[in-house]
Amino acid sequence: MSRGDLSRRPIILIFICVLFFGVRRADSHHAFGFYDMKKTSEIHGTVTKYEWSNPHSWLFVTVPAEDGTTEYGFEMVSVGELLRRGWAKNSVKPGDPIQVRFHPLRDGRHGGLLLSASHGDGKLIGKPLPPPPPQAPQPPASS
């Protein structure tokens, strides 16, 4: 090895560490463990609240139920990603009729991860979200 090759080692090692830890951090932030990613549900209701915020925006929808109404909460992506997908701060407002497709919460509460939304007339709001990356297989449970 030449002297020049040895002087690059610390830089290469730092680059590899930053790359590894940066990728792990992004991976852990975007965990989808709260949602049943194998199921897709759909509701029709009325927008109650739309939170245009980072790191995740939220959409709240009231749905008619047998005993009155049920409130659903939907996690969305960041403002930047919503803008890239054609959403705006005023895409929906309280009182708007809306249809939402989503991955439901695993624990059965009302809500989930928003996949797409349409106005009451059926017109899609922005572009649907892409599917999440595949989940790593879980190791078998030890007995």
N-to-C terminal Cα separation, in Å? 50 Å
The CATH topology name of the largest domain reads OB fold (Dihydrolipoamide Acetyltransferase, E2P)
Major β-sheet strand ordering: 1-2-3-5-4
Q: Give the C-alpha Rg.
A: 21 Å
Description:
The chain is globular, with a radius of gyration of 21 Å. The chain folds into two domains: 1-31; 41-119, OB fold (Dihydrolipoamide Acetyltransferase, E2P), CATH 2.40.50.140. With 143 residues, the protein is of the alpha+beta class. 23% of the residues lie in helices and 31% in strands. It contains two helices and five strands, in the order H-E-E-E-H-E-E. Strands 1-2-3-5-4 form a five-stranded mixed barrel. The termini are far apart. It has helices at 3-29, 79-84; strands spanning 41-51, 58-65, 68-75, 97-104, 111-119.
Strand and helix layout:
Layout: H1 3-29, E1 41-51, E2 58-65, E3 68-75, H2 79-84, E4 97-104, E5 111-119
Parallel strand pairs: 3-5
Antiparallel strand pairs: 1-2, 1-4, 2-3, 4-5
Overview in brief:
By secondary structure, the protein is an alpha+beta fold.
What features would you highlight for this structure?
143 residues, alpha+beta, OB fold (Dihydrolipoamide Acetyltransferase, E2P), 2 domains, five-stranded mixed β-barrel, 2 helices, globular
